Amino acid sequence: MSTCKVIREGPEGGGDEETPLFKPVIPPAAVAPLNQSNNVLLVFRLHEMRQCENVNIALAFLCLAYCGTNVALIITNYVDSQYDDPEDKPVPEKWFHLVEFWGTFAFAIVECLSLIFTPKSMINLYDNPLLLRLILFFNIVVATIPALLISFNYEYFEVISHQIEYLNELTMSFVDCVLLVSLSQLEGTSGQLVCVALGIAVIQLLVYNAMGRDENGDMIGEVPAHYLEFAFEVISSIIVFWFCVDNKFLCGKEIGDILYGTHKDCRICRASFTEYTETYRIAKSNEVAAALSGNGTASKTIDYGSAEVRGRMKDCGVM
C-alpha cells in the first residue's frame, strides 16, 4: 500500500508518521452478503421473479389509466345527457362508445395478464384454478365481440353490443371478487362470489332494459346504466391495481429471499408446490389406483406402501 509522510507542526513539537494514501474499502459482501448456490434453478427463478415484477408494475399503471378513462367517461356521459339532439353533443356518441368498448377489451387483457404473471398459487386464489382460467379467457372473447360490432356499425349494433357487455359483467365481476377475496384473505366465500357477480350483471341489465325506449327508439336506461357501468369499472380497476401492486411486492420479497435470505422458507414456492401436489400428483395417484382396481375406477383400497403400487406410481411419475 502506498504511504506518505505527514509532518506535524505545533507548540508540542513536530513529528512525522506514515499515513496510507487510500483508505481501505469495506466490500459490500461484508455488509450484506449474497447467497451462493450451485442450483441453476434459482437463477431461472430469479429472472422469472424480476420479469414478473416489471410486468406487474406496467399493469398497475395501465389500471390507473383505465380508472382515469372511466372517470372521464362518467363526466362525458353527464355532459352529453344534457343535450337532446345528438348533433349538439360535445362528444359524438360513436367515439364515446368506441372508447367505452375498446377500453373494456383492453382491461380484460390486463386483468388476464395480472393473473398469469402473479407469483401466487392459483389454488390459493380460487378453489378451482381451471375454472378461473377458463373464465378469464372467456372474458376476453366476450369483450372482443361488442368492441368489433360497435366498430363495424355503431347505429345498428349499439343495443346488442350493450347487452353482450352487460352480460360480460358477470365474468368480470366474478374475477374482481376473486381478487378482492384473495387480497383480504377471506375463506369459504365461493358461493358469495357467484351471488355478487350475478347481482351486478342483473342490475345493469335491468336498468338498461326495464326503462323502455323513447320516441326515437333509443334506450331510456342507457344513461343511468352507463353511470353504473363506469362506477363499477372504476372499482374494478382499483382492485386489479391493488392486486398488481401486491404481486410486485411479493416478487420483490422472493428476490430478496433468493439473494440475501433463506429461500427454502419462501411461502410462494411452498404454495406452488402445494398446487402441484394437489393437482398433478394426486391426479396421477388416482390414475394408478384406477389402473390397479382393474375396472377403470378406484373402487378398492390400494396399499400405497406395497412394492407393486410404488412401482406403478414410479412408472407414472408420481414418485
Mean pLDDT: 76
Please provide the ordered H/E string of secondary-structure elements: EEHHHHHHHHHH
> Can you summarize the main beta sheet?
2 strands, antiparallel
Tell how many strands the DSSP assignment holds: 2
**Number of helices, where a helix is a run of at least 4 consecutive DSSP H or I residues:** 10
Rg calculated over all Cα atoms: 30 Å
Strand content: under 5%
Q: Could you tell me how far the N terminus lies from the C terminus, measured between alpha carbons in angstroms? A: 59 Å
Lateral arrangement of strands in the main beta sheet: 1-2
Indicate the percent of residues in helices.
Answer: 55-70%
* Structural class label: mainly alpha
The global form is elongated
> Which residues form runs of ≥5 with pLDDT under 50?
25-30, 296-300
Architecture blueprint of SSEs:
Layout: E1 3-8, E2 15-20, H1 28-31, H2 40-80, H3 93-116, H4 122-125, H5 129-152, H6 154-184, H7 190-210, H8 222-259, H9 267-293, H10 307-315
Antiparallel strand pairs: 1-2
Helix pairs in contact: 2-3, 2-8, 3-5, 3-6, 3-8, 5-6, 6-7, 6-8, 7-8
